[in-house]
Design brief:
- By secondary structure, the chain is α+β, with helices and mostly antiparallel strands.
- It contains 4 helices and 6 strands; from the N terminus they run ββααααββββ.
- Strand 3 and strand 4 form a beta hairpin.
- The model has no long low-confidence stretch (mean pLDDT 88).
Length: 117
């Protein structure tokens, strides 16, 4: 299990720990549009896992977030007030940078992961 730390009441883990614990999946939309010789982790941000905030990718995220079977696998990458990144459980629109879908579900809508470098 990831090395959990708390700072100002927030759950803090590294990006590697987030990937290990929640297992983000490759963005299948971009994968289908990208040449097969390009590695999965190189097709888009967040090691090939980030979904964009517009068009087909946003439509897919909204569909996932509206289903009771998959909504707890949607995470939103947002920029915090200090220019850092935070991953919030669920679909959010304010300050969003992108979205992730994970194999493992989040456990609380209040769950927040601050990313350390």
């Amino acid at each position: 299990m990831a090395n959990k730390r708390e700072k100002s009441g927030k759950f803090i883990i590294t990006e590697d720990e987030f990937f290990e614990q929640y297992k983000p999946v490759i963005n299948h939309i971009v994968r289908a549009e990208t040449h097969e010789n390009i590695a999965d982790e190189d097709i888009c941000s967040w090691s090939g896992c980030m979904y964009e905030t517009y068009q087909d990718e946003l439509a897919y995220i909204r569909k996932m977030a509206s289903s009771s079977k998959t909504k707890k696998k949607v995470w939103t990458i947002v920029e915090d007030d200090n220019g850092g990144q935070i991953i919030l459980a669920g679909l959010h629109l304010v300050n969003r940078m992108g979205y992730l879908i994970t194999e493992k579900s989040w456990t609380s809508e209040e769950q927040e992961v601050a990313i350390e470098d």
